[in-house]
Amino acid sequence: MYARSLSRLALVFVVLYLLLVISSAIPLRLLDYEWINRVTATLINGSSMPLLALLVLALGSQLYPENELLNQRRQLFSRLAGVAVFGFLLLIPLNIFSGLLQQTNSSDQVRALDASERQLNSYRQAANQATSVPDLQARMAKLSAPAINPELSSRPLPEVKAQMGAALNQVAAQIAQQRQALSAQSSWTSRAPEVLRVVIACLVLAFGFAAFAQTTPTSALLIDSLEEMFLRLRYNLRSREDLESDPFDDDQSQQPVWWQRWFEKRITPPGNSRNRKRSSDQEDHDYIMEILSEDSKDS
Question: Taking the complete model, does pTM exceed 0.85, yes or no?
Answer without folding.
Answer: no
